[in-house]
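Record type: ASSEMBLY
Status: queued
Input:
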Amino acid sequence: DSGVTQTPKHLITATGQRVTLRCSPRSGDLSVYWYQQSLDQGLQFLIQYYNGEERAKGNILERFSAQQFPDLHSELNLSSLELGDSALYFCASSVVPGLNYGYTFGSGTRLTVV
Amino acid sequence: DAKTTQPNSMESNEEEPVHLPCNHSTISGTDYIHWYRQLPSQGPEYVIHGLTSNVNNRMASLAIAEDRKSSTLILHRATLRDAAVYYCIPSIGGSNYKLTFGKGTLLTVNP
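Status: finished
Output:
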């Protein structure tokens, strides 16, 4: 157990639907990162939050949004889902932003869009 | 962005040392080199990172070339649990918060 909790572990939904993925960072970590891993694209950075504020955006689609709440947990919202959104979604956390502190990843949410 | 080149795959025998190479010839002077690994069906896991000198921790050692154009991750005694994809990731100069994963090296450990 890495200390980063992601729920649900698996999610199957239909095209056009909306889902919410949840991430609880490791205790004491203030920064949260979201990544998408698909077979053809590998691990792609989506978005980063630090203490409730958005800090950086990567290849995140406009149909996707995220937020970090006062208790530091984060949610990734995916809407108007397409077949191509099927992927593993990972959340990572770190004490503060910065690679030199090491990122701790959760075990991911596997999203299947049918 | 600093580009990396890693072998697609490597094979090792259990309890033998493993040397995983990474070329990063375009790395800038302030970029750290980070290594992560991803075991099957798990999220990536931090292994080690360094700037100029060699680094050791309980998991591995990192040997960085003097010109910093390459580095080698060393697993001193491979175990079956070390079978994973290993990613070499230079910090993206100036914005050292975004891990940019390449394709990595798939390490197979034979019993």
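Annotation: Chain B is about 0% helix and 45% strand.
Annotation: Strands of chain B lie at 9-13, 18-23, 33-38, 44-50, 55-56, 61-64, 70-75, 84-90, 105-110.
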